[in-house]
Structures are given as structure tokens and as C-alpha cells.
Amino acid sequence: MKNKKIHKNILIKLLKKVKQNKKYNSISDEIVLDEIQKYLNENLEIGPITSINKQTISEIRKQLHFSYSSFQTKKKRKISKYLEELKQAKTKKQILEITNPLLSTTLSTKERINSYLEIYKKIFNITNKPKIITDLGAGFNIFSFPYMNLDKLTYYSYDIDKEDIKLINQYLDILNNNLSGKAAILNLRNLKEISSLPSSDIIFLFKTIDILDKPNKNHKSSEGLIKYLLENKTDYIVASFATKTITRKKMNFPTRKWFELMLKRNNLKFQTIRTDNEIFYVVSKH
Fold it and tell me: Domain containing 159 — which CATH number?
């Protein structure tokens, strides 16, 4: 049987212990508490929890690492410096010169640097050029805006790290002549928060679905999310999956057959775009 009774003070103690590691300190308390609750419910026997141990903290941090920290590089601390340089940029050429260093601060954006132009060209050939994009599990993907070749765009960026959100909002302020919108904390497993998302032309879910589904060890979470978003929030979803491991080895099964079968089962249309590192599914109801 699963644990249902957890003392509030134990949750708070676990929260503090987990966030003592600086890698997780800036992740939203709500997200960390959600991971703690999920871990306890899945791993502890019924009855009140009155103590904590190192293994529990280690396992919770491991999940947070999978969800967030494994995509970071040591260059992340340089973002503020690059944003200061961006403030001085006056031309598109100058902005592009700072774009690649910004994209190099996380692994997912770094590996797309040579592909972003092609990715966006192919996506927008399918969807038409968007006026509004919502990015879920966004990381710093917004830094690729100069590669979209759009004169104006409203961009809503959602993730779980408070410091990242501050940096993205700074970026939006700097490029406010062409780029508007906001960045905010969002828990993708919270249906109330999902229901409050703005409507948009496209929703990005880049390398997010595997993370969303992992705790439940099935694909019900992502299936429900995609159906809800296409019914209520957007005409197109662009979901991507890695085709290489973090250690850069090719995956044995890079195409997500379960995802394609799920889309077909729900009568959803899709087209694929491939790069060396990633496969993108452009999904719609029509």
C-alpha cells in the first residue's frame, strides 16, 4: 500500500535538505515539494512519516537532476554577462553574434545551434509563421529567437527554475522592440496551472515529454496534456525527443513509435523533422 499521511514538517525538512545542494536551490519550492510527495507516495508504506534519511534525499535529487540539471552546463553563470552585451547590440548582426554564446549555456540549445535555422524554417512551413508561441519546459530556448526570422513575436516561456525565469524576462525586456511576452514558473502536472495558459499559434514541448512521463512509467500524462492543449489552447504542438543519449551515443530506437501510435489513436495528424540529435513531431488536429 502507498503512503498517504505525511507530516507537513517532514515535507518542509525534506525541501530544505534537497535544496541545500546549490544545483537545486533555485528550482521552485512547488516543483520540489511535488517530487518529494510523489517519491514518498510511491516508495513508503502507509503510516505517518516521522524521519528522513540520505537515500530519500538522494533519490529525490536524482529525479530533479533528470528533469532539469542534466541539461545545464558550467557556462550558465555567464548568461548575465551576455545579456549585458546584448543591451549594447544595435544591429541584427550584433544580436546574432551574442546569440550563439547564449545558446551554448545549456546542452539542448547548444546542440541545436547549427540546426535552429532549418528547424524553424521547416516548422513554420507546416504551421505558417506564428504570432504567439508558448514554450513548456522551455529552458533557454527563447534565446534562439533571432533564428526564427520573425519581425514580431509574443513568446510565453514556462519552466521550473526561478533564476532562469528572471534571466528570460531580462532577455524579453532587452529585445522588446521585436519580442514581447513573459516567463513564469509552471508545473506541467498541475491541471489548474495548465488551464490558465494563454492561447497561442504553436506550443513547443522540446525534450519535455520523456521528463513528464517518467515518474508514472507510462504515457498517460503526456497523452492527456497533448489532447487538452490541442482542444483548448493551440492549433499546433511541436514535441521533440532526443535521438542521442547525454553521453552522445545514438539511441537504439530514436523514433518514438509509442508516441506515433498514441497520436494515431487520437486521430491527430503529424509530420516529422529530423536533425542529428533530435526528432520533432509537428502535431495538429487537421
Answer: 3.40.50.150
Angle, alpha carbons 135-138-143 (nearest 5°):
95
- In the chain, the number of structural domains is 2
- Domain co-membership, 173 together with 279: yes
| Distance of alpha carbon 112 from alpha carbon 104, whole angstroms | 9
> What residue numbers bound the domain in which 16 lies?
8-67
Instruction: Kindly state whether residues 108 and 23 are assigned to the same domain.
Output: no
The per-residue pLDDT string of the chain (286 residues; one tens digit each, 9 = 90 and over) reads 344 445 677 777 888 888 888 777 778 787 778 777 777 777 665 444 545 677 888 888 877 776 665 445 556 779 999 999 999 998 999 999 999 999 999 888 999 999 999 999 999 999 999 999 999 999 999 999 999 999 999 999 999 888 899 999 999 999 999 999 999 999 998 889 999 999 999 999 999 998 888 766 689 999 999 999 999 999 999 999 999 755 556 665 567 899 999 999 999 999 999 999 999 999 999 8
Grid cell listed for 275 = 536533425
My answer on whether 20 and 119 are in the same domain is no
- Concatenate the DSSP letters of all residues of 237-283 into one string: EEEEEESB-TTSPBPS--S-HHHHHHHHHTT-EEEEEE-SSEEEEEE
H helical segments located in the chain: 8-18, 29-43, 54-67, 79-88, 92-103, 107-111, 116-127, 162-174, 191-195, 209-213, 220-232, 257-265
Q: Which of 235, 87, 108, 92 is nearest to 150 (CA)?
A: 92
Are residues 185 and 158 part of one domain? Answer: yes
